[in-house]
Structures are given as C-alpha cells and as structure tokens.
Design a protein that fits this description.
The chain is α/β, with parallel strands linked by helices. The chain is about 25% helix and about 25% strand. The strands form 7 sheets. It has an 8-stranded mixed β-sheet, sandwiched between helices. A 6-stranded mixed β-sheet has the order 14-12-13-21-25-22. It has a 5-stranded mixed β-sheet with strand order 2-3-18-19-17. Helix 2 runs antiparallel to helix 4. The longest helix is centred in the middle third of the chain and has 19 residues. The chain is globular. The N and C termini lie far apart (about 70 Å).
Length: about 525
C-alpha cells in the first residue's frame, strides 16, 4: 500500500463492507507495479512497444442479458424496464454480494483503486474499485479520472465496484441467468461483477449509473458520444454506433479531443465522464489512426489480440479470438487531448450512420424534432457478410445511440437534448458514412475524404450559406452544394442509376424506422412522432 491516503481508513472502510482484515491489499499501485504483478502471475505478456497484453477468457465483450438493475423503491418507477434493463431482486442482490465478498476473503490479495467519474467537479462521483487481479485494476487506472495525493487523503467512496472474474454465481439460488453477472444497485451504490473478465463491464457499469443520476438529479444530459473542440472554442458532439466512423471523424488533428465515448451536457458545458479511452484495435492502422496506434505503449492494456508468429508484434487484422480487440489507455496518451476534459456549449451535433441501404444523404440538416426522432432511433445498418451468400444489409437501432446503458426511457434523454438544441440554437447534422450509388453489393462506400470535407464544412459554418432541398421521404434538408464534394454526391437519389429502385429502397427503410419507433411513441411528445419519415409514396 502506498502512502497516498490515511492508511488507517482503508482497512476499516473495507471491513465495513465485510472484507477480511487479513487480506493483502494492493492500494493505488502504479501502472508499472500492476504490469509487473500481472507478468509474475503469468496473466499477461508485453508486446514489442511495452504494452501489457491479456486475454479476457470466455467473454470478449459485454453480456447484455446478464446485466441487471436491482428493482426497489428507488428504481421501480424510474427505470425503463426492458430487454436491457432487467430487474433483479434486492434480497438476492444482498445475498450474492455477500457470497462474492466471502469468495474474495478466501483470496490472498485484492487490488483496490480510488478514482473519480466526471471531469466536472459539480457532478463528480468517488468510486472505489476492488479487483481480483492486477490488470483489471490497471484498466480502472486507465479509464477513470485519477485523483491527486491530496484528494486521496480523506477519500470516502460514493460508489463501490467489486469485480471477481473467477467467481461464478449459481443461477438456481442466486437469481442470475448463468454464472456470469453484472448487477447495479442504486440504493446500495454498488456494482458487483462476477464470472467475466471483460473489463468493459466495469466502465459501462459506471456509465449506466451516471445515465440514471445526472438526468434525474441534475437535469443534465448524459450522452454516449465523442466530443471535441476547435480553436474558436466551438464544441462538436459525434454520436454513432460501431462502424460509423465516430472515433475517426472526432479525432481531427486541428481540434482538441474532450473524450471519445461518454459525456455530460449541463447548462454551461460539455464534460467527459472518463479519464481514458477504450479503443477498438481491429485493423488498426498507424496511418489512419496514429494517435491510437501511438497510445499502445507502457501502461496501456491490450485485450484479446494475437501476435505474428514467433514475435511479440500485434497482428491487428487477426480476428481469431474476437473482432472486439481493445486497448485502454489514459487520456493524456493522446497528444491533442483536452485536460481537464470539459469545454463550452456545442455548436454542432453529428449523428453518424453507416447506411448500407444507400438511402440516406451523405450529410443533411435536421430540425429539432427530427433530431430528437433520430436520437431516439439511433440507426445504422450492418452487412451480415458473404460467407453464405448473404449480401442484404440489416438495420440496427439502438436508442440514444447506446440503449444497453440507458436506464431511463429514451424520451427523457431526448427531451433534455431537444431543450438544449432549442435554447442554444445548435445545428444538428445526419451524416451517412455508408453507401452511395446503391445499397451494399451495388453502390460503394462513401469516400472518407468527402465525409471529412462535409463535416469540416459544417464545423466551419460554410454550410450556413448554401441552399438546401428537402428529402421527399425523410424530410431532412440536403445541401445543394458543399465545398470539396462533387455536387452529384449530395442527393443520394441522383447517385442511383435506377431512381425507381432508390424510391422503393427509401420507403422500405422508412418502414423500418417507423416499425422500430412504435415502442417509444407512448413516451414522447406528438411533434417528435410526426418527425418520422413517410412510409408511402
């Protein structure tokens, strides 16, 4: 244990939770010490740039069906209970937490880290993370905000995270679906995680907590997005599901990165929830994403990668363990990171979609009501693959661009967003990074150079001075010209050789939007419902 807090406090605080005083507690260790301990325990290896590489075992991603929220007087009428927010019995939570702590008490050591979530001091919560292994504690160091020695001295946590990957629940008696679980109790202010070593469960647990607390207690919008700021203090937000280009488009060298994944927006500012980044590694290219590539250095934690044979050099294209290869690292590993990571009111918001149907415009402007509709919809499309000759795209909708982490009804977040857009006159853009000239298999992927030019034109205000036309089905405003982009690319209908086929595809996609939105209609105002695309010609 290092002398960065009143050392007499920690054992007493842990024993209050039920932890044994006989445990060896590794408190607030350095990244070097955590790396060395992981290597000594044969739980990881170093790559050729000095980063720690580990395998997370059976689970290489989150397990949404095994993430629960305790249903009690605090959450019964506030949480939007659905396939992502699955209720868990309060008494069973208490019993399972005690079993988890009893398991930990039979280990020789635990790793404990105190940290913050939320860069903005008004909303900051104190977190104590208790881990079964050192590399999970390294993840907590990388991803949460690191307190100073002075801040640690009298640290008393608001929330606890107890994580033991080797502890398995008994579904028959513990109330879980299977052996692994991640359960949040807002009353106990505790997250318990067992049976999975996937570190993303730690960060997304706290994200879910903030998505509950900030809107309800502070009327502050919590968001699953990246954010950056320009030299003129102009803030931009980028929402988008996996594969839409969120990381790439928000990481412009000319703008400071506020954060890459989780943010809040209050009356005066946008602020990062985290102190680090958790970036995908699959097909990582030094030329395309140099900042992430350079961040794989000592202190970084790389998950589920494969080396080239007989080397310790990462083969970033190898998907044999998982496509969800990841690296976590502190925000200061990024050269253009803004620290402390908060800035002013956004001037532009980008909803990114990879539309494999080739229907949506490469860029279009949304009204406030359309923005709220698209925000609740959270649309992108994925191609199933061609292994069995399947080439048809599949529509994917995730409310608020992060449904698994939103414990409240999507309408709550949309209302906060809509109010802020109206109050501050924020411009909202729908950007299609997917197909043009036809759907997948016929058209081609939008050139990244043109997408960057369109985003740049919006950020610089150049699109404020061009004419727009209305899309006949989706009702969005399409610019007739954009600097650096061929005019013929701007309206998707004109890029299709068969315009009747385009009209048919547009109405088919419209029908998917409307079908998906049925489940949200009862919880949103009528003007948002009316912002839906047309379903018939």
């Amino acid at each position: 244990m290092i002398a960065t807090m009143n050392q007499s406090l920690l054992p007493e605080q842990l024993s209050t939770l039920g932890f044994s005083l006989n445990l060896q507690i590794h408190y607030q260790l350095s990244t070097k010490a955590l790396t060395e301990q992981t290597l000594l325990r044969s739980e990881g290896v170093l790559n050729n740039t000095g980063a720690l590489c580990v395998e997370t075992g059976k689970f290489t991603g989150r397990s949404p069906l095994d993430r629960f929220i305790v249903k009690d007087s605090l959450t019964e009428h506030t949480v939007d209970w659905n396939n992502f927010n699955i209720p868990f019995d309060a008494e069973k939570f208490d019993a399972l937490k005690q079993k988890l702590i009893d398991y930990c008490n039979h280990q020789k050591s635990l790793w404990v880290r105190d940290a913050f979530a939320c860069a903005h001091p008004d909303y900051r919560i104190k977190i104590r993370v208790i881990n079964e292994n050192p590399w999970s504690n390294l993840f907590a160091y990388n991803m949460f905000i690191r307190p100073s020695a002075e801040e640690l001295h009298e640290f008393e946590p608001d929330w606890h995270i107890i994580q033991a990957p080797n502890f398995l629940a008994n579904p028959a008696t513990d109330g879980t679906r299977q052996g692994n679980f991640a359960i949040i109790s807002f009353t106990e202010k505790t997250i318990i995680i067992g049976g999975t070593a996937y570190t993303g469960e730690i960060k997304k647990g706290i994200f879910t907590v903030l998505n509950f607390l900030l809107p309800l207690q502070h009327q502050t919008l919590s968001m699953h997005c990246s954010a950056n700021v320009g030299d003129e203090e102009d803030v931009a937000l980028f929402f988008g599901l996996s594969g839409t280009g969120k990381t790439t488009l928000s990481a412009g060298a000319s703008r400071k990165l506020i954060g890459d994944d989780e943010h809040g927006w209050d009356a005066n500012s946008v602020f990062n929830f985290e102190g680090g980044c958790y970036a995908k590694c699959i097909d990582l290219d030094a030329a395309k994403e140099p900042e992430i590539f350079k961040a794989i250095q000592p202190g970084a934690l790389v998950e589920n990668i494969v080396f080239y044979p007989n080397t310790n050099q990462i083969n970033f294209s190898d998907k044999s363990i998982t496509e969800n290869t990841r690296v976590s690292y502190p925000l200061h590993y990024i050269s253009n990171a803004l620290v402390p990571s908060f800035a002013g009111i956004p001037q532009n918001i980008f909803f990114l979609t990879c539309d494999a149907y080739g229907v949506l415009p490469p860029i279009s402007k949304l009204s406030t009501e359309q923005a709220m509709y698209q925000f609740i919809s959270g649309y992108t499309a994925k191609v199933a693959g061609t292994e069995a000759g399947v080439t048809e795209p599949k529509a994917t909708f995730s409310a608020c661009f992060g449904a698994p982490f939103m414990p409240l009804h999507p309408g709550k977040y949309a209302a906060l967003l809509g109010n802020k857009i109206k109050k501050h006159g924020v411009k909202v853009w729908l950007v299609n990074t997917g197909w043009t000239g036809g759907g997948y298999g016929v058209g081609k992927r939008m050139n990244l150079q043109y997408t960057r030019a369109m985003v740049g034109a919006a950020l610089s205000g150049k699109l404020n001075h061009v004419e727009f036309e209305t899309h006949s089905v989706f009702g969005v405003q399409i610019p007739k010209t954009c600097p650096g982009v061929p005019v013929q690319l701007l309206h998707p209908r004109y890029t299709w050789s068969d315009r009747n086929a385009y009209d048919k595809a547009a109405h088919q996609l419209s029908a998917l939007f409307n079908q998906n939105f049925e489940k949200y209609k009862s919880g949103v105002p009528q003007d948002i419902v009316c912002a839906a695309p047309k379903t018939t010609a």
